[in-house]
Design brief:
The protein is built from seven helices and three strands. Among the domains are: about 45 residues, no CATH class; about 90 residues, no CATH class. By secondary structure, the chain is mostly helical. Helix content is about 60%, strand content about 5%. The chain is elongated. It has a three-stranded parallel sheet. About 5% of the residues have low confidence.
Length: about 200
């Protein structure tokens, strides 16, 4: 009998300790939702009910933020690609900007939104070549107008996918030169009927 009483009291003590641990863990779990502290198991249950009623509202802001961050990264990468000067924008011998490179720099500094007027330069064969390209862009941009101020020019590992402007121009000029005149072909039926009428 004595042994059974000791056994029951041990079971009750264990159950009480488990309830206390459950209440404290619930308090810690729901503290992230702004539901702080629980002094009793009943309050912990109320906190649990409130958290269940809020679901999934507490996860929506974090999910939206993650989507916005990915969107912002894609927009930045797109503008970096748009404002990129590649190998064909620089003269291979002097390292200065070609006519196509000057036109692109002028477009970036005059037509893009104000907060997107950063110029990116494809890295050259070595550090010296890259530094010469960056300096060429800064010098020519500064010569456009004194009001331009300091130009944000950065080198990047992205490779500009393109062709020399002369090659592209030759393709379009050749296409226009070899275009067939927009003339309707002669009607074969009308010519045969006119020849029969003369006979």
């Amino acid at each position: 009998m004595k042994y059974r009483c000791i056994q029951y009291s041990c079971i009750l003590a264990s159950a009480w300790i488990a309830l206390v641990c459950l209440a404290s863990s619930a308090s810690a779990q729901y503290a992230q939702y702004g539901l702080y502290g629980s002094s009793s198991l009943v309050e912990a249950c109320h906190l649990g009910c409130r958290a269940n009623q809020m679901w999934p509202a507490q996860y929506i802001p974090a999910a939206r933020r993650s989507v916005y961050c990915a969107h912002e990264a894609m927009i930045n990468n797109g503008w970096r690609r748009q404002n990129l000067l590649g190998t064909y924008h620089f003269d291979s011998e002097t390292g200065e900007l070609t006519e196509a490179g000057k036109l692109k720099v002028k477009w970036i500094l005059s037509q893009t939104p104000q907060h997107r007027r950063s110029i990116f330069v494809e890295r050259g064969a070595d550090l010296a070549n890259t530094a010469d390209r960056v300096a060429a862009v800064q010098n020519w941009a500064a010569s456009l107008s004194p009001s331009v101020g300091t130009i944000d020019v950065n080198d990047t590992h992205i490779v500009a996918e393109g062709h020399p402007a002369g090659t592209v121009d030759h393709i379009f000029v050749g296409f226009q030169t070899n275009q067939r005149p927009p003339v309707l072909p002669p009607d074969a039926g009308s010519s045969s009927s006119s020849s029969n009428s003369t006979n």
